[in-house]
Automatic annotation (TrEMBL):
<dbReference type="GO" id="GO:0005581">
    <property type="term" value="C:collagen trimer"/>
</dbReference>
<dbReference type="InterPro" id="IPR036116">
    <property type="entry name" value="FN3_sf"/>
</dbReference>
<protein>
    <submittedName>
        <fullName>Collagen alpha-3(VI) chain</fullName>
    </submittedName>
</protein>
<dbReference type="Pfam" id="PF00041">
    <property type="entry name" value="fn3"/>
</dbReference>
<dbReference type="InterPro" id="IPR003961">
    <property type="entry name" value="FN3_dom"/>
</dbReference>
<feature type="domain" description="Fibronectin type-III">
    <location>
        <begin position="7"/>
        <end position="96"/>
    </location>
</feature>
<keyword id="KW-0176">Collagen</keyword>
<dbReference type="InterPro" id="IPR013783">
    <property type="entry name" value="Ig-like_fold"/>
</dbReference>
Amino acid sequence: MNPNADNADELHVSNVTSSSLKLRWSSPDHKLFVYFEVVVMRLHDHALVLKTNVSGTELTVDNLESSQTYHAVVTAHTAQGETVSTRKGIMTTSKSPNNSIQFILYSPISHI
């Protein structure tokens, strides 16, 4: 029995910021060549944010909106296009940091 079998179908999320996050997953079968279809959608309106195919087991998703919830689906396919496994997750980006900038206006003092 594989001690990691419980984690095999998990989608891990890390490095969450206000505009990006990192998705990571394991390969379902190291003997099969697989590619992964990654689909990320904004949850509240189901807007497609990303749809791509990758050969690796991690992907950084950029250009996200702060304080938004996203739904990610990673589907593993064989080289022949057969579906091997599907992983799903829901994640929320962090709140945008307060980037307020203060401007100080000044006039030089002239000596007459």
